[in-house]
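Homework-ish question, so no full write-ups if that breaks the rules, but can someone show me the predicted structure for this set?
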Amino acid sequence: MTTDTLPELGSIEPNQYGYRDFTLGKFSFSRDEYFVHVRWPNGTHMLPVDAFLRAIQRDVAWGFFYGIVNFDTVIGTVNHYGTVDLFAGRFNAQYRQAGLDYSENFKSDAISRLFEAILADWTNATFDPFASPEETGSAFGPKNGSNKRAITRHRVTAKRMIGAPGDEPVRTDDNGFPINRQFTDVPQDAPEVHAEPGFEHEVVSVNLFAYLSRSDVTWNPSVVSVCKNSLYCPTTEEYILPIIHGNDRVEWFVQLCDEIQWEVEDRDTGAVRARVTMKAGDVAAMPADIRHRGFSPKRSMLLVWENASPELPALYASGKMPPAPVQF
Amino acid sequence: MASQPTRFGSLRHFEKGGVEVIKDDPRNYVFSNVFEVASKAKPYEKVAVGKNIEYVIEAIRAEGTSGWRVAAQDEFALVMDGEVEVRLVKPDNPSLVPPGSQGSIPLAGDPTGKKMGRVRARRGHMTLLPAGAAYQFHAGNPSVILLQTLAGRDTVERWAQICQTTPRPQTQRG
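A: Not a homework solution, just the prediction itself:
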């Protein structure tokens, strides 16, 4: 059953550390100086607060993404594209066997509002959940202000292509996107575009690598080109993907520079299946029945390629589509 | 200068990672490398390195001048190595592309129509190939294009030749 009432966003009075408590359905969330405490009718769980904030920041920014967003091996969300399951232990074989898993379905708007309220109250002035660990201060300690700018960034979703007239702009120093400290050697040259009069809106080219070198966030795919339902969603990665992404469809990666290692597990049980090392120019599919977490030792550029066709989750879930994209 | 240099790949120099299987089939990951694929391809052969139902990404070795092509939907050409000139023409005959066709189709000879313009693109540059526009590539030296498109009549699928099929990656460098 879907809970479609708007959530009680939080307690009026802060706790002894200065933070409000929050509830959604039968889940409750509270934080202290170091940890988030999640409670549900038949269990409790603790997560480090920095990891939790990084995870729900992505979940909100991505609109709950494609499929499952595991905050860790216990807590996470499943996107049903209109409604969202909030779960505990659902994709953890031991929790399932012990009967300790719990799941509740909410309207997407309701759970978005809850996570946004948590981010607003629990993100201190010193912490940026989108930044790499070297580029942010601490999430810990008693309440210390807020960081609205960091948690309400614009989400890039090009309608056709970044840089096209009327579409998402390219990044520059002037619009607030300096070159990242780890990409200062990435060439910033622009393509030579010679458009005949009347065709300026269709003769379009951008330096995608320069665009990515100016990203101020990590692990945040954003749409840069649209070929019907085929979406190029490149992103810059550093340190560890803050969530474990469980697929409801096939997803593809193209490593544009440097290196990422992916831990791949069974989506439903967490059993380890493979480790995929990707270097510049490597291409790999993530099958529809896995979950994965990336490790990027240096800031790198990753092209995430998605098929946004709305019918895909049902096709894969019903077994009408094999989980691997190509049989050979 | 960045504390650690950014490492891109190229036809001349690439290092390939791979799949280390714990309990799986490496073919599930359809693992390949665009530079390796392009290094073994014919000029302007459209070799699929990714496929998602009807959509593909193709690795294309750009070398010399291609034939003209046109597609019913926008395509996007990302130069991964080298330098490529993209030439665009608006065909006088809009029915060159059958409605609902997928991927691009080759044109016989040069299209008649208005010149739309041209783009000289280098590594990292992404160029729109607008729906209904005829396009041609030219590269003075071997270069690599990654094309976002739909599978079409000229898309080449040779997965068993380009992808890892063994449980451990074999170190490959170009």
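Now go work out the reasoning yourself. Hint: The first strand of chain B starts at residue 18 and ends at 21.
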